[in-house]
Design brief:
2 domains; 34% helix; Rossmann fold; 14 helices; 10-stranded mixed beta sheet; two-stranded antiparallel sheet; 16 strands; 491 residues; alpha/beta
Length: 491
């Protein structure tokens, strides 16, 4: 990569009570030139690392957000060049995850399945979507290098479902304005809690900033405020349990001899047609029927019929992660159940730690800091918050699924794609399908809603095979969501 001379960001400090906090210049940028080979073709681009202020309702600066913006440099007409705005979740998580492991021009060094390797570092991403779209990765307040600058600022204006959406909508509008991208087709992508964020954000941008989008990509989505209490909440995890048990080889031989694509439709049908209707009866379910269901669940989940009955058919995820491989002295991961962990003792009802998350922190933090210094010539003594202090987080008033439905209804150009990993126990794939089914009760928008599944976990792109497939799916989604020139937005 060839780099130009950078305009370095300026550091300063001020005190919050007794603690000193280092800050960056709140409105600055540094640009460098690079090249990456994607799908066998060279793609030149500029990388901008920068900060942009967050203002309150009185126009006073209260915070700034750090971002990294990649723009293809051999494009003459930006009006036809898509722009993707990328967020991760948490809440409190920085944009690092999708930035250096999924859609961006570089990848952290990991093995084919996503495990950390040394030496730490990064390489070109031959599957990046930068060939078809420009991308900006945004760190919300108190994540990454983004910080509050006004020590008197009310934290409630940042840390909540609706507060988050409100200030980010203003920030995105300002960014689009500064980069002269109003005419460009625009897309939002969010992962995990980031799906809550972008589902609310697309509606807010559309209705308060009058900015219209072509697509929203939901990577490992949350429940989006869509109700699923009682039997539905308990039963919906069974297909995920099956996928995990299949991966670890603890199902019965006839099931292990089948491919995952053959097994899961069978389990989904059982969940919808038998398990949920029976669980609706609660304690009044017939004893023989309860035993019959427990037997089937045991077959599909890799757990004993005894423990399933002890939980009245509603096996908690925390217990499943501890129980599935208990006889092997191992636990399985929450965010990616392919990972195994070792607890202090085999007894208990939940694991000591999530082996998936521990592995990812191990892989990402060194690689990202190395990339900032050596790849983008950005140096600071600040700590990059992979997970920042954003709590308490106000989760009240979460109607983001309805927000997204409303945005779809109002904007005939808008499309939504959901991406899920079969081995994700934090935001499981079947609940993602359920959210899609429930989002539009009328069924009139379903031709613009799609779902894709991958044989990995929460960050499905960490597995090499799924990295390529998932990026190709986004690439095709972007192309599909951009209408032919002159096509009116109407029903």
């Amino acid at each position: 990569m060839k780099r130009s001379v950078l305009i370095m960001l300026v550091g300063l400090c001020f005190s919050f009570g007794a603690a000193a906090q280092q800050l960056l210049n709140s409105d600055s940028s540094a640009v460098s030139s690079h090249q990456v080979t994607i799908k066998g073709k060279k793609v030149p681009y500029t990388a901008t690392v920068g900060t942009q202020p967050v203002w309150d309702n009185e126009g006073e600066e209260v915070a700034y957000l750090f971002y990294t913006y990649y723009e293809r440099s051999d494009v003459d007409d930006l009006a036809k060049r898509p722009l993707v705005v990328s967020f991760n979740g948490g809440p409190g998580s920085a944009s690092i995850w999708m930035h250096i492991a999924y859609t961006g021009p570089v990848l952290l060094n990991i093995d084919e399945e996503g495990n950390p390797i040394q030496p730490y570092g990064y390489q070109e991403n031959p599957h990046s979507i930068l060939d078809v779209a420009d991308i900006v990765y945004v760190d919300p307040v108190n994540t990454g290098y983004s910080r509050i600058t006004d020590k008197e600022a009310d934290r409630k204006q940042f840390f909540g479902v609706n507060a988050d959406v409100n200030y980010l909508a203003e920030w995105v509008r300002t960014f689009v304005n500064r980069q002269n991208r109003w005419a460009s087709p625009k897309f939002l992508i969010g992962e995990s809690y980031g799906t809550t964020r972008v589902s609310g954000l697309v509606n807010r941008l559309q209705n308060s900033q009058w900015m219209y989008f072509n697509g929203v990509v939901l990577v490992s989505p949350t429940d989006l405020g869509i109700n699923r209490e009682g039997p539905v909440a308990a039963a919906n995890y069974l297909p995920y349990y099956t996928a995990t048990a299949w991966y670890h080889g603890v199902l019965e031989p006839d099931l292990l001899n089948k491919d995952l694509d053959e097994i899961l439709p069978e389990v989904e049908a059982f969940t919808i047609n038998e398990l949920i209707p029976a669980m609706v009866k609660g304690g009044f379910i017939e004893k023989s029927k309860k035993k019959e269901l427990a037997s089937k669940m045991s077959r599909y989940a890799g757990l004993s019929e005894k423990v399933i009955l002890e939980h009245n058919l509603a096996v908690p995820t925390s217990f499943f992660w501890k129980e599935l491989l208990r006889d092997q002295g191992m636990t399985v991961g929450r965010l990616d159940s392919r990972y195994r962990g070792v607890d202090r003792q085999d007894a208990g009802s939940r694991y000591d730690y999530d082996p998936a998350l521990s592995s990812w922190n191990h892989a990402f933090a060194p690689a990202f800091n190395h990339y900032m210094i050596n790849g983008l010539d950005f140096e600071t003594d600040m700590n990059y918050f992979l997970f920042g202090p954003v709590h308490p987080w106000d989760r009240s008033g979460d109607r983001t699924g309805e927000n997204l439905r409303s945005a779809l209804a109002q904007n005939p150009y808008l499309h939504v794609m959901i991406q899920s990993g079969y081995f994700d126990g934090g935001t499981d794939y079947f609940n993602a399908k359920y959210s899609m089914w429930q989002m539009d009760p009328s069924g009139k928008l379903k031709d613009r809603l799609s779902w894709k599944g991958y044989r990995s976990g929460h960050m499905m792109y960490l597995r090499s095979e799924d990295l390529e497939k998932a990026n190709d799916d986004i690439r095709e989604f972007i192309k599909k969501a951009i209408p032919e020139e002159g096509t009116p937005a109407k029903y």
